[in-house]
Amino acid sequence: MSAHVSVELASARPDFAAIAAWIPKGASVLDLGCGDGSLLRFLRDMREVRGYGVDINDANIVACIRNGVNVIQDDLDTGLSGFETLSFDYVILSQTLQAIRHTEALVQEILRVGRAGIVSFPNFGYWRNRLKILRGNMPVSRDLPYQWYDTPNVHLCTLHDFEDFCAKQKVQILDRRVMTGESEVQMLPNLFGSTAVYRFQRSA
Question: What CATH number does domain 3-202 carry, 3.40.50.360, 3.40.50.460, 3.40.190.10, 3.40.50.150?
Fold first, then answer.
């Protein structure tokens, strides 16, 4: 991947750069719900990572192969039984958490297979989403691009929801970045941030 393409990807998906900042050079990575393999390509270019993507969609599998990304076709809601315990440094779930039906089970599997996990997701508590709901409609945006009737999203959440979930699941949050576009949000992130990225591990 050229440096120019890497810059374009980071601009289109600011969570890519946030994720890359947490991953050391040469780490092993499993990317769940990897789509066309763009994140793995980005991490391979920026951090020289080794790893695999997992996706269920036929078109995404083909796209990954064309992009030179190692990929396995599987349904995340059936678990990660094909992977050994602690077989990866990081397991990533980028913009896929909200489409998972069995969230608790998958997060526990992420922390079985990986030494740490990283998730990114659209913040349903973002003020623009709240405003659209107050006006009587489900929000549609760059981060939530689907209409209510064709969305794959089944479990939308806010930052507070995710952090409460981690506390109940005995998951230790190590780092958090909240962004709107390419800008990091520090003040009232659950209100002003459109995308959240978390790094976590199992609590001691």
Answer: 3.40.50.150
Residue keyed to tokens 């969305």: 151
88-94 and 71-73 strand pairing: unpaired
Q: How confident is the model at residue 204 (pLDDT cuts 50, 70, 90)?
A: confident
* Per-residue burial over 114-132, b = 16 or more CB atoms within 10 Å of its CB, e = otherwise: bebbbbbbbbbbbeebeeb
Per-position DSSP letters for 97-155, written without gaps between them: GGG-S-HHHHHHHHHHHEEEEEEEEEBTTSHHHHHHHHTTS---SSSS-S-TTT-----
Q: Left (φ > 0), alpha (ψ -120 to 50) or beta: where does 19 sit?
A: alpha
pTM above 0.85, yes or no: yes
Sequence spans of domains, the chain: 3-202
Return the structure tokens found at 197: 């990225």
Contact between 202 and 111 under an 8 Å Cβ cutoff? The reply is yes
Q: SS3 sequence, 155-180?
A: CCECHHHHHHHHHHCCEEEEEEEEEE
Question: Where does the pLDDT of residue 4 fall: very low under 50, low under 70, confident under 90, or very high at 90 and above?
Answer: very low
Q: What is the DSSP letter of 23?
A: S
